[in-house]
Fold:
Amino acid sequence: MTAHECCEFLPWDTEFFGQQIARVVGQKLDLELVTGITRWCEDNAIACLYFLADSADVHTVRLAEQHGFHLVDVRMTFERRLLQNPTEAVHSVEKDGVTIRMVLPEDVASLQNLAKDSYRDSRFYFDPCFPKARCNALYETWIRRSCEGYADVVLVAELESQPVGYITGHLVNECAEGQIGLVGVGPEGRGRGIGTRLVSAALDWFATQGMETAVVVTQGRNIPAQRLYQRCGFVTRDVKLWYHKWFIACEQELAR
Structure:
């Protein structure tokens, strides 16, 4: 891999956070590659570099630690096979006062309000150089864009005519895989099994679309989410490590 191929500029992240952001291409490091990465980032005035590392490669982990990469997340991917004979796709299913249904345009503001407080275990909140207000806005933007078509499906849990949870899904047709994106349940909906029902509804929807496997990603520190997916029949596919490397001093870090 040449110096020009070692990193990829991320326009959306750059615009959203107001800093030049890129990511490392590939999941393993060697000393020559680290040198090329550093040179590329300096030449392109990169502020923050993301690196998703192979957790099983000890040489990569040691090089990351030695060259200013900071561990911000353990990325866990779970998978499960889908039913061969799926039920009818979800339109509106009520049980114990909670209805699981397709998203409506008028739900978006409520879902944004749920999303801004639902992802405190993510790598962006764990990195002190990302302002918390922008982290909140990231997930508000993510769920809004999902409702506007970024996701292939958005399901909502409704209690007493108010959205109290949601799940988003994406279809990867070339490998017959349904990918769960965002899952969130607000305080009013917790303790009712809503997370399990949302995941089950998404699995049914994936199956009706011809998908054979479902996949979801969560954080190593997010034990409740891991238990939710395990209850729904998921098993671990792989474990990777998220690192961030900052090439500038940030106000949040300096203030610590």
